[in-house]
Design goal:
With 442 residues, this protein is an alpha/beta fold. The chain has helices at 2-12, 14-25, 58-74, 87-100, 114-124, 138-146, 160-167, 170-178, 187-195, 215-228, 243-257, 276-285, 314-320, 339-343, 358-367, 376-387, 390-406, 410-419, 424-429, 431-434; strands spanning 50-54, 79-84, 104-108, 128-132, 151-156, 181-184, 200-203, 233-239, 265-270, 290-292, 305-307, 323-326, 348-350, 370-372. The protein contains 20 helices and 14 strands. The two termini are 39 Å apart.
Length: 442
């Protein structure tokens, strides 16, 4: 009954969903592309042996890369379908298709409507489905069960706030989570997932530690670093709405107080491409000399801010930077991925809002790879102190690289779990050999 009511609400909400698509399409016209796929209508033929992996947007798609690579390498007779929800996720998926070839394809995941989900499984008939991180869709999971498609929730995480929200709809969520085999990032995530109905939960760590930064992008960042000479570089990475103004004002105040020669370069990289022009206007309004990567511009000696309005180049920015502030942590967005910075041996600053990467952020601070700051002004002061302390920065770089190396291995465990889906019930019964809810397995 709960799922029936949920489905009726979704059907009635379709006009609002269309308005939301139209609103987003003002800045990203791609939201109006492939509309049929969002309702389960797909063109073309499908390979017989197909793994399906759902990665909502950019972050999930990048995190899924080592798993996709392992599936393609380990199952040479299979293909992999990626589904996404956002155009930026789809664009990131296209980069992977270019890298891994025609055995990797993509589409949009349909809305969680019964008919759309039925058409999705009828068309693709995957042998196994993998949802990334926190994707719990009741109709989709129920349809997978009816079609005997085993489902895995990989790289799973659940914040305390999200757990509270899910528990309000326990009659809807519990049957869905009970149907999933779950590979959680941390023991705390596993516990919260069990509290909303999950029954088969393992702790495998975070797949993002297994993502290898693009050597090409790292070489590009090295070229930038060489061209910048002895200028010190403070990177604000994957910033969110409201944070850029705080960072720019803090940077301007710090620059006005300190006599720095050569001047510090602030590299500002907004998380969402639709906000690039908005952030450019913010910089211009503060009379800070700036240039834009998206226009092929490179900082000269008088440039104070370099706007990183490009996609897919974060490893290059991290490689070029001396210190990075992780976006989404100054305001309550939960934080963006600091693991990518660690993989590039880039020291990081994080604010107080890191619930999306709570364990990783805490571990990075404990290991000396990251430092906590309270606000944008504190971040500017801490960045300035570190940029004037070569020994401290060098120690943080070494700690970052070691932190990234020590946490790898989630991909291998997840692939093995996919391989052994048919033994899921036996695994649940044999606690001593199969219950991996222990930090020693990370």
């Amino acid at each position: 009954m709960a799922r029936l009511i949920y489905s009726l609400v979704l059907i009635l909400a379709q006009p609002l969903i269309w308005l939301r698509l139209l609103w987003r399409a003002r800045k990203q016209p791609a939201y109006l592309h492939h509309i049929g796929e969002r309702y389960g209508f797909y063109p073309g033929t499908v390979p017989q042996k197909l793994f399906w992996l759902h990665a909502v947007s950019v972050g999930e798609t990048r995190a899924a890369e080592p798993l996709i690579r392992a599936l393609l390498d380990g199952f040479p007779e299979h293909s992999v379908l990626m589904t996404h929800t956002t155009p930026t996720g789809r664009d990131t998926g296209e980069e992977l298709i270019t890298r891994y070839g025609p055995r990797l394809t993509q589409a949009y995941l349909p809305y969680d409507l019964p008919g759309a989900c039925r058409r999705f499984f009828s068309h693709f008939a995957p042998v196994c489905g993998v949802l990334m991180e926190t994707e719990i869709w009741p109709n989709l999971i129920a349809s997978a069960k009816r079609n005997a498609v085993p489902m895995l929730l990989a790289n799973a995480r659940l914040s305390e706030r999200s757990k509270t929200g899910y528990r309000r709809f326990s009659s809807l969520i519990e049957p869905a989570t009970a149907s999933l085999v779950i590979a959680a990032q941390t023991a705390a995530d596993a516990k919260r997932l069990e509290e909303i109905g999950a029954r088969r939960v393992h702790v495998f760590g975070n797949l993002k530690f297994d993502v290898t930064p693009s050597p090409e992008k790292q070489r590009l960042g090295g070229e930038w670093r060489k061209a910048l000479g002895d200028r010190r570089v403070w990177l604000a990475a994957s910033t969110r709405e409201g944070e850029e103004a705080l960072i720019l004002d803090a940077f301007a105040r710090t620059s006005a107080i300190e006599a720095i020669d050569p001047p510090i370069l602030l590299v500002l990289v907004p998380r969402h491409p639709q906000r690039f022009d908005e952030v450019a206007a913010m910089i211009e309004a503060r009379n800070l000399r700036f240039c834009r990567r998206g226009k092929g511009e490179f900082p000269d000696a008088k440039t104070r801010v370099w706007l990183g309005d490009s996609m897919g180049e974060m490893p290059a920015y991290y490689t070029a930077a001396d210190i990075a502030l992780i976006g989404g942590t100054l305001l309550p967005f939960g934080g963006q991925n600091l693991i990518e910075a660690a993989a590039c041996a880039c020291p990081t600053l994080v604010g107080t809002h890191t619930f999306n990467f709570a364990q990783a952020a805490e571990d990075a601070v404990v290991r000396g790879a990251a430092r906590r700051v309270s606000d944008a002004d504190d971040a500017a002061r801490e960045a300035l102190r570190l940029l004037d302390d070569d020994a401290a920065l060098s120690a943080m770089r070494e700690a970052s690289a070691l932190f990234a190396r020590e946490h790898r291995g989630a991909t291998e465990k997840t692939v093995e779990l996919i391989r052994n889906q048919e033994t899921g019930d036996r695994c649940r019964e044999t606690e001593n050999s199969c219950d991996l809810r222990s930090e020693k397995n990370l």
